[in-house]
Specification:
There is one protein chain. This protein has helices at about 1-20, 30-40, 45-50, 55-65, 70-90, 95-115, and strands spanning about 70, 115-120. It is mainly α and about 120 residues long. It folds into 2 domains: about 1-65, no CATH class; about 70-120. α1 runs antiparallel to α2, α2 (about 30-40) runs antiparallel to α3 (about 45-50) and α5 runs antiparallel to α6 (about 95-115).
Amino acid sequence: MLRLFLVLTGTLSLALGVLGIVLPLLPTTPFILLSAYCFARSSNRLHRWLRSHRWFGKLLTNWEKHRGMQASHKRRALWLTVFSFALSIYLAPLLEVRLLLVFIAICVLTGISRISVISET
């Protein structure tokens, strides 16, 4: 029963993480990390698949081994975050929503900036 719960949680988390790629308020990284955690404890096949995935595999491996990310990935994450939040702030109809988005963007960018950089391999 626990195994089924972890597979379902991992799958839902992966779906939310993929959605987070295009939706600025939905964080991709925590959902992908949660998926990896759930799959590692429930399904070797799904965990291997996620770790060998062309988008997420290297990032997950770097995080699991070094608790960091490569400088190129970090730059890309920062630029994509700035772009998606800038677009959202521009499109937001209310000043209060814009201010909330600015606050969230600052928090997210601060979090990404604090992740340690590992050497390119």
